[in-house]
Design goal:
The protein is 46% helix and 4% strand. The relative contact order is 0.08. The protein is mainly alpha-helical. It has a two-stranded parallel sheet with strand order 1-2.
């Protein structure tokens, strides 16, 4: 994923040696222990939780819908997921990122469009995104926090998330006017 120009926005002749000669040979050693800590008997939590989400969404929508899982950089891939649709007039793409970023949502949607362009009959495509402020998402997050913190006294809860590189904000024409010292203004 580090070779994706939406993730590291450098020309390929700079990005390729940076990623493949300087980052990857050393990143593996640093992240191996972290991945071992979260790996379960079911394997990758990202994969099996995504599969559970796919299965539950499919069950709720019923037989009139076909729900497939496609991941941007691993299997099951977006291409394999799209190939499973035998007859499709409309395609709903739901990137599982609560808020938009070019590196995550943009890259996933770009891959869907790249794959679907090879099809003879292209369905109507609807991209569902930016659900960070949807009451259902907030309620689900609150329920998970409540479940995890039951029977405990908690003074504070810290939310950690990836920030965006300043270059990504500038290139996205962010009009929020961040002063780079304080938190960015509330999105509207």
């Amino acid at each position: 994923f580090l070779n994706d120009p939406r993730v590291i926005a450098l020309p390929w002749f700079v990005r390729w040696p940076l990623v493949n000669l300087l980052i990857l040979p050393f990143r593996y050693r640093k992240t191996r222990h972290a991945y071992q800590q979260i790996w379960t008997a079911n394997g990758s939590p990202l994969l099996f939780i995504s599969e559970q989400l796919r299965d539950e969404l499919s069950a709720r929508l019923g037989e009139g819908y076909q729900v497939e899982l496609g991941m941007r950089y691993c299997n099951p891939s977006i291409a394999n997921a799209i190939r499973k649709f035998t007859s499709c007039d409309e395609l709903y793409v739901i990137p599982l990122f609560p808020q938009y970023s070019s590196a995550a949502t943009g890259s996933a949607v770009q891959e869907v469009l790249r794959v679907i362009q090879a099809e003879w009959n292209i369905p109507a495509i609807h991209v569902i995104r930016d659900f960070y402020d949807h009451p259902g998402f907030i309620d689900a997050f609150a329920a998970k926090i409540s479940e995890a913190s039951s029977n405990q006294v908690i003074d504070k809860i810290l939310f950690r998330y990836h920030g965006l590189p300043e270059y990504h904000l500038t290139r996205s024409a962010c009009q929020s006017g961040c002063d780079r010292n304080q938190a960015c203004p509330v999105m509207s």
